[in-house]
Amino acid sequence: MADLYSELNVGRGASEADIKKAYRKLAKELHPDKNKDNPKATERFSKVTRAYDILTDKDKRAQYDRGEIDEEGNPKMPFGFGGGGPRAGAGGRGGFRGPNGEPFEFGGEAADVSDLFEGLFGGGRRGGGGPFGGFGRRSAPPQKGADVAYRLEVPFEDAARLEDQRVTLGSGKTLDIKLPPGVEDGTRIRLSGQGQAGPSGNGDAIVTIAVKPHRFFRRDGDNIRLDLPVSIDEAALGAKVRVPTVDGPVMLSVPRGSGSGKVLRLKGKGFTGRNGRRGDQLATLMVDVPDDAELARFLEGWSGRGKANPRAGLGV
């Protein structure tokens, strides 16, 4: 089985941010929804997800780095049995040798020490019912069922407001899940016990969130940006205008003499951050100049009144 770091294409010293970035890239490439006819990609996706689960859990990562658990997250066999112990060889029925390589002998014959192990471990080569199952090997603990991965598309506005989402599992069971503060594209939510069945219980369901793009809102950290068109008279004279937000339309005051590019702030109309506080909506004014003959005649007359050069600050 491949090393967990290799599965994610990162080094052992990778930060949690590097691991998350690597997982998101691989998850997009390997997700079952994009590889319905490629079982190898689906299998790799499961391995990548398992690697991510262990390496983003500080305790499990530390255990893995110390060699205490394997790539499945199961405890490794203790005491070094199963490969590093005494070797069977010629000269003795038990295969045990002394410090100079000679077989242990009693009365001129090589001793069969299997009875010794039977007494110590309750079964020896017959695999009796002692705690180590014969010759010091401890039987592996029963495993939980496999985790199952899901992808859930969430509307932009729902993600901003942390609206509960409904997910249908492979079993046909439907659950409502709560979105966590700070949710973003690629956020993973674990549903305990909702995976495949196993000898020691069910695995988990791993739900990866995909936040749908919006047709005019853009996310900027916990803030939301919007290009807001205003008419030339609203910008020049000032006005109250109706503005969309993820919580519904609100009224916004446009100051007199506003130009394109001016940013107005609507507090608390952004995404809910990990700290539990909502960001803001930032509306960038875009002055709409119509193709109007009467306006054109007015501006032609006005332009000759010695108006200031708006590009003077640029040195031109």
Structure description:
The protein is α+β, with helices and mostly antiparallel strands. Among the domains are: 82-126, no CATH class; 146-213, HSP40/DNAj peptide-binding domain (Sandwich), CATH 2.60.260; 218-306, Urease metallochaperone UreE, N-terminal domain (HSP40/DNAj peptide-binding domain, Sandwich), CATH 2.60.260. It contains 8 helices and 13 strands. It has helices spanning 4-7, 16-30, 39-55, 58-65, 114-121, 156-161, 232-237, 293-302, and strands spanning 105-106, 109-110, 148-154, 165-168, 174-177, 188-191, 205-211, 218-220, 223-231, 239-243, 250-254, 263-266, 281-288. The strands form 5 sheets. It has a 4-stranded mixed β-sheet with strand order 8-9-13-12. Strands 3-7-6 form a 3-stranded mixed β-sheet. A hairpin with a 2-residue loop joins strand 8 (218-220) and strand 9 (223-231). Mean pLDDT is 80; it is low at 79-136.
N-to-C SSE string, H for helix and E for strand: HHHHEEHEHEEEEEEHEEEEH
CATH topology of the domain at 218-306: HSP40/DNAj peptide-binding domain
Number of contiguous helices: 8
Helix content: 10-25%
Spatially, the strands of the biggest sheet line up as: 8-9-13-12
CATH superfamily of the domain at 218-306: Urease metallochaperone UreE, N-terminal domain
pLDDT < 50 runs, ≥5 residues = 79-136
Q: Give the DSSP E fraction (strand runs of 2 or more residues).
A: 15-25%
Structural class, from helix and strand content? Answer: alpha+beta
Q: What is Rg?
A: 34 Å
**What general outline do the C-alpha atoms trace?**
elongated
Q: How would you state the average pLDDT, rounded?
A: 80
The biggest sheet, with number of strands, parallel, antiparallel or mixed sense and barrel status, is: 4 strands, mixed
- What is the top-level CATH class of the domain at 218-306? Mainly Beta
CATH architecture term of the domain at 218-306: Sandwich
Give the total of beta strands.
13
C-alpha termini separation = 66 Å
